[in-house]
From TrEMBL:
Family, per entry: Belongs to the EamA transporter family.
A family per Pfam: EamA
Biological source species: Phormidium pseudopriestleyi FRX01
Keywords: Membrane, Transmembrane, Transmembrane helix
Protein name from the UniProt record: DMT family transporter
Transmembrane residue ranges: 12-30, 37-57, 84-107, 143-161, 173-195, 207-227, 239-260, 272-292, 299-316
Keyword Calcium: no
InterPro entries: EamA_dom, EmrE-like
EamA domain mapped to chain residues: 8-159, 176-314
Length: 317
């Protein structure tokens, strides 16, 4: 069997992580020019437009939902919903929790804790995803898969802890920031599990699931921004150069990145998909070296450890 077809979900997750690693370098620049909320909203709107164009060109104007049964643990609470409405509801909820709420509290945690501590807390998202998938989706992972997840997460955490200096951590009380970081990790995990629930036992295309999640997240984010800041928030995109950078980066990070993430959640267990998608800090290392940044031996060893864990995740089947 073709290994790419057999491990379609795993390769999609790795590809998403690679795209997010490259995009993170650009976003570090954009974050100094545009407010995080406006950046999040802008890239979401661009991705939605690209997804609608793709669906039109591929003649996927309506999502295909020809499943015969949903995951048993989730079917009873929603037994009044028909087969068409249930996956759409789960995906909308996934976008609202994972994108709108999750990104908002993630940005708030960044302001409270700084990049290093916030990213370290985010390494809790993959094991939380795996546990929620066991509880609600009845997914079971092998010992090799658990070992690969743990090793990968340790390697990513080690890499993050080494690469980002303590000096960028604000001197603020830890408890509020840690609480926000934990909420962000939990929201990410819940969003992934809801997507997996909608995708795993239906024929819905990942393109459609990506669009529905983004529509939910962006619409709620837009309403929140209008309520809090009004129209003046849109003034941050006055430069044509910034608009061009946002357009290009949104194509790769949001349009392709979230599409690949949804493919990974459709074809591989939620915990494994989330773990592989969280390996972006490892892929940032060669980019940092290419840009002339100093990367320590310890950070490289953390990346190597992560790669060993990733290799194990391709042996779980």
């Amino acid at each position: 069997m073709n290994p790419i077809a057999e491990f379609k979900g795993e390769f999609a997750a790795i590809s998403a992580a690679l795209l997010w690693a490259v995009s993170s370098v650009v976003y570090s620049y954009l974050g100094q020019q545009i407010s995080p909320m406006l950046l999040n909203l802008s890239k979401g709107v661009v991705a939605i437009a690209l997804l609608l164009l793709t669906l039109f060109l591929r003649d996927f104007l309506l999502p295909a939902l020809d499943s015969t049964a949903f995951i048993p643990a989730l079917s009873h609470p929603f037994n009044t919903l028909n087969e068409f409405a249930l996956p759409l509801f789960l995906l909308f909820l996934s976008g609202a929790i994972g994108i709108s709420f999750g990104d908002t509290v993630f940005f708030a945690a960044l302001n409270q804790l700084g990049a290093r501590r916030t990213l370290l807390i985010q390494t809790l998202a993959p094991p939380l995803t795996a546990l929620l998938a066991i509880l609600f989706l009845r997914e079971q992972l092998t010992l090799i898969a658990w070992g690969g997840m743990i090793i990968t997460i340790i390697g990513v955490a080690w890499t993050i802890a080494e690469r980002v200096s303590e000096t960028d951590t604000p001197s603020a009380p830890l408890l509020p920031g840690v609480s926000l970081g934990l909420l962000a990790a939990l929201a990410q995990a819940v969003g992934a599990v809801l997507s997996r629930a909608a995708l795993a036992q239906t024929a819905i295309n990942p393109l459609w699931s990506t669009l529905i999640r983004l529509l939910a997240g962006v619409s709620l984010l837009f309403l929140w921004i209008l309520w809090k800041q009004g129209r003046r928030v849109l003034s941050g995109l006055g430069s044509k150069r910034l608009v061009a950078i946002v357009l290009v980066t949104s194509f790769f990070s949001t349009y392709l990145g979230i599409w690949l993430q949804q493919i990974s959640l459709k074809f591989s267990p939620a915990g494994i998909a989330q773990t592989l998608s969280a390996t972006s800090p490892v892929f940032v290392l060669p980019i940092a070296i290419a840009l002339g940044e100093f990367v320590s031996i310890r950070a490289i060893l953390g990346a190597v450890l992560s790669l060993f864990g990733i290799a194990l995740l391709f042996l779980w089947r």
